[in-house]
User: Fold this.
Amino acid sequence: MADNDIIYFEIFPWNKNFETGIDIIDEQHKQLVKILNRLAAHLANLSEAVVLNELFDELAAYADYHFKTEEKIWSAHFKEDEWFSDHEETHESFIDKVVALKENKSHKSLDDVIYDIVSFLSQWLAYHILDSDKRMAKAVIALQSGSSLQDAKSQANDEMSGSMKILIQTVLSMYDSLSTRTLDLMREKTLRKQAETALHHSEERWKFILEGGGENIWDWDIEHDKLLFADNNIPVLDFVTNHLADNIDESSIHKADRERVEADFQAHLEGKTEFFTNKYRVLRKNGGWSWVLSRGKVVSRDEYGKALRMVGTHSDITERELASLIYQNSSQAMLISDIHNNIISVNPAFTKITGYTEDEAMGKNPKFLTSGQYDSSYYKQMWESINRTGYWSGEIYNKRKNGEIFPENLSINTVVNVFGSVDHYVGLFTDISEKKKADELILEHANVDPLTKLHNRRMFQDRLEEEIKRSKRSNSSFALLYIDLDHFKEVNDSLGHEAGDALLVEVTQRIKYQVRESDIISRLGGDEFSIIFTDLNDSLRVDRITQDIIEALRKPFQLDVDQVYVSASVGITLFPNDANDASTLLKNADQAMYLAKKSGRSCYRYFTPSMQEAAEKRQILINDLHGALSLGQFQVYYQPIINLNTGQITKAEALIRWNHPQRGLVSPDYFIPLAEESGLIIEIGDWVFKEAMRQTSHWKQKYNIEFQTSVNKSPVQFRSARKLDEWIEYLDELGLSTKNGVIEITESILIEDESRITDKLLQLRNLGMEVSLDDFGTGYSSLSYLKKFDIDYLKIDKSFVSSLEEGSQDMALCEAMIVMAHKLGIRVIAEGIETEVQKSLLSAMGCDYGQGYLFSRPVPAADFERLLDK
Ligand code: C2E
Ligand code: CA
Ligand code: CA
Assistant:
């Protein structure tokens, strides 16, 4: 083989799309593609007939073997079916065609043979592998999962419809232009080399090479105006005879090309050029135009330089020209770059899409088009794929000359040289921004309600399914609300549709205002809306927000000059409590909504009776809570805090109790959240503080001790605008110092990034009031917060204390908390001490204070005094 021969010329890069899903078939297809590429390489190299024959034989033999294997698979599944017989036929025709191509080869021009083969094989690859084989493989897969033959076939047809057809078309057109274009590059390289060599050889040698190359040769004795040799009857002879005849009008050369060809030819005869090369169109006998490539050289001249003899070749390059025309006129942008990835050619579509002219693009690395949206790892991956498989394709954003960023569908192919290394890269892309815009618009129309811009019913279904999946994964729950407006029909009927529409838009606004960004609102149709409350952790939130929505919709709507009133009936169902699939949830919510309508409208109902009961109970309690303070139903209990070193009671925690006239003692765990939701906690909290401080000052006087009482303060109180001044003044009035009170807070407020809260905490510090961090270990337990907020006490949560045992994990945790706190200068209180063992373990670990049933339950002030008396 010569230096610049190509061993592997990848006209057909393996593409993932070829894969059928049946491994053995894919393996064989890959083998086949490999042989085709080798064949292509030899064709481009103008390899000797023997080599080519061997390859053709190999191809035929392999195809035979492969088809038999494949047919075995198909016949096992399709038996007598026509899909099988049709398929068998195409296999036979393939072998016939290969045999015919091989025979043709000897009496056709090489270019013709190459293009016959390229076009036949690309068609075969696309239609046969991409369509027929894949279709059958899909059916086989369906058959294997138990479908009937008929079902499997129609399923396969379904899967193959539409997108597959487009894919095949794309691949075909890409291959048509790509393979001919790359083939051109290779062929030209080989020919150029030959021509150069030829210049240095004798006439005989020159002729021999031409004959060897199988091109159509002419040998013109200019001196005697005689064609010495011409082995073909195609139109290039017309060109020579035209010239001889000196009758331009009768020339079959295309008018547009004639003058140029004549001038070049004349220049060469006169010795002004070393070589004559020209491409032009000639009229065929059948009336069509063909592109002809003519090359020639004067091989002898007389002493005055007059040309005596000229030899040359011609070939019909119509198909190649067409390919080049495609390159020039394709709407697909194409660029070819060299081994260093510097651009050596671009087509007009490239200029049209990117805005860069050929001159501007020439010699540049295609990365000058980058949009800057991808990091280097993205391109690294792309190039890894190109280096490994010779191919990459995907959607990518690039930048036009005018700065505009646009999406394109890009594929990059590699052309490999004789050493197996890269010779060229070929990039093909289309601008898909219009298509994308259209897709988005379609998507939007399909999923969005045009009036309110909320999700429509279809999108709602999707989102609901999604939320179910998500919640299952994360083990969380959500609420589904079904909202139906009351009296909407009346508005619509009396004021008209436009007013109705305006009302719906305003309703949407009001609903949106009440919910979080992450909640999903949809308009299911007419006057029906739905909301999915995601990540639900208390049903209280649902109650409150639903109530707020109902209140908001109850307020009058101003429609132009009319003021109208509507209201809403809401049904609520919970996932996973009530159901765990979309359709049942919807049905539940709908039923609950009807219940709300039946109960007199403008209210909400839960789907499950127990949920409904609980909601009603909460509502009643909230109502009762409103009056509790003025009716004197609250009482403060005190639980002693013991100094573990001395065994003395030096502190107490104030804990509120509610004596409900009907329910008896209600636990703060239950009513504090209600008080927080309704905002009543602010009043209640003030009362507890004052009550506890009043009691403290009494004990301070009575027992003459520096007593300290801690009061729990809810995050809601911190968020309120209420000032601390009042509390401090009250301490003054009582003759107490700020050291007599401690504020207990929970970690949740430390992580809130609200300056209002943090300011208040710091203000407390500055006033000299101590702060205790409650329930430590159950939340974020971050060291940095402890430092940042200068906490005085840390209360180890009772869940750690309850399971304290020598050598247990909780033992290690408690010890770690104590050591860590002490390092920061924070004292430690252990909560929930119920046994002597717990007490002594904690005490041994260096814990400062203890609180728990072991010492005393929380008790009324009078009982507490008895503890102090001891
Ligand atoms: P907390 O602040 O963690 O209060 C300690 C709770 O642990 C009290 O429950 C107390 O009775 C209980 N406890 C004490 N020793 C032991 C023990 O040895 N074993 C067990 N199992 N439990 C023990 P209580 O009084 O029911 O209060 C519950 C929660 O209600 C409090 O938890 C606090 O978060 C809240 N709370 C109570 N009073 C108020 C108040 O005035 N304002 C605010 N914002 N919240 C309050
Ligand atoms: Ca507490
Ligand atoms: Ca606690």
